[in-house]
Design a protein that fits this description.
Elements: E1 3-12, E2 18-28, E3 32-36, H1 43-49, E4 58-63, E5 66-67, H2 73-79, E6 80-83, H3 96-106, H4 111-124, H5 140-152, E7 158-162, H6 170-185, E8 189-194, H7 197-203, E9 206-211, E10 214-219, H8 227-232, H9 239-244, H10 254-265
Parallel strand pairs: 3-8, 3-9, 6-7, 7-8
Antiparallel strand pairs: 1-2, 1-4, 4-5, 9-10
C-alpha cells in the first residue's frame, strides 16, 4: 500500500522561523488530500519535505517504507512528483513538447516511449493542441497544465501540488478539478496545499489542518465542519456548509446545491 509516514518532523529556517513543529502523521495511498492553513502555517514547507526538496532537520519521512535521505532522492522523486505553485519555476524549454519530454529523456526513455508517454499525459490534461507552443506565451492555467504533464510524464505514484488553484478563473478551476479526479481514478495519490476551504471541502476526502507550523488536525471532512477546529487553524467554515447546515444536509459543491434546489422547485 502506497503511504507517507511522517514522524516527529521539525524544521527551522536560518532566520529562526520555526516552520514545522514536531509533526507526525500517516497518509495512506490513493487519497485526495488537502493541506489547509493560512499564510505562514507551514503548508509549502511540509510539501517540500515530501519529495526531498527540503530534508528533515529533526524526525523523518518515509515513502512506501523508504526513509527520505540525500542518498535516495533520485528514487524518491520517481515516486513523488512535485508541481510548484509558480509554473514558471518549472517551464524552461522552447516548446511545450520539449518541456514535457525533458523528464522521460532524463530517465533514458527511448524516443518511441517518450512519444507514447507524452501522447498519454497531454491527453490526460487536455493540452495536445499546445504541444508546439512556447511555454512562456501561455496563460497561467495552461502553464500549470504543462507543468503537471511534465511531472506526470515521469510516472510518479504520488502527485504533490503547491497551491494549484490560486489565480484560476472559475472555468479553469473546474477543469483542474476534473483533471485531478481523473488522476485519482487512475490510482494516483494527490496532495495539494490550499487556503481555500470551499474548494477543499468540495474536492478532497482527507484533510490536514496546520497553523504556525503545528498540526491542528488530520482526518475526514468532518474536520471542516467543526467550528472549534477550523478556528484553531485560522480558517472559516466552508460557505456551502454554513448555508445548508441548519437543514441537516451534506451539500459539498455548487453542483449538488443546484441539483437540490432544482428538486425542491420541481416538487
Amino acid at each position: 500500500m502506497k503511504e507517507i509516514d511522517i514522524k516527529n518532523l521539525k524544521y527551522t529556517y536560518p532566520d529562526g522561523t520555526l516552520a514545522i513543529d514536531d509533526m507526525s502523521m500517516n497518509i495512506k495511498g490513493a487519497k485526495k488530500v488537502a493541506i489547509l492553513g493560512s499564510n505562514g502555517s507551514g503548508k509549502s514547507t511540509l510539501l517540500q519535505h515530501l519529495n526531498g526538496l527540503i530534508l528533515p532537520q529533526v524526525g523523518n519521512i518515509s515513502i512506501n517504507g523508504r526513509i527520505i535521505k540525500k542518498e535516495n532522492l533520485e528514487e524518491i522523486r520517481k515516486t513523488v512528483g512535485y508541481v510548484f505553485d509558480n509554473p514558471d519555476d518549472q517551464l524552461f524549454s522552447t516548446t511545450v513538447y520539449e518541456d514535457i519530454a525533458f523528464g522521460p529523456r532524463n530517465l533514458l526513455y527511448d524516443e518511441k516511449k517518450v512519444s507514447k508517454t507524452l501522447d498519454r499525459v497531454m491527453d490526460l490534461v487536455n493540452i495536445r493542441e499546445l504541444k508546439d507552443k512556447q511555454p512562456h506565451n501561455l496563460s497561467l492555467g495552461q502553464k500549470r497544465k504543462v507543468a503537471i504533464a511534465g511531472v506526470l510524464a515521469m510516472e510518479p505514484e504520488i502527485m504533490i501540488l503547491d497551491e494549484p488553484f490560486s489565480g484560476l478563473d472559475p472555468i479553469s478551476l473546474d477543469q483542474f478539478l476534473e483533471i485531478f479526479n481523473r488522476l485519482h481514478e487512475l490510482g494516483h495519490t494527490l496532495i495539494v496545499t490550499t487556503h481555500d476551504v470551499d474548494i477543499a471541502y468540495a474536492w478532497a476526502d482527507e484533510f490536514i489542518l496546520l497553523n504556525e507550523g503545528k498540526l491542528i488536525a488530520h482526518g475526514d471532512i468532518t474536520l471542516l465542519e467543526n467550528r472549534e477546529i477550523i478556528s484553531k487553524a485560522n480558517l472559516n467554515l466552508p460557505t456551502i456548509y454554513e448555508i445548508f447546515e441548519e437543514f441537516d444536509l451534506k451539500i459539498r459543491s455548487k453542483k449538488q446545491a443546484k441539483e437540490y434546489i432544482k428538486m425542491l422547485i420541481n416538487r
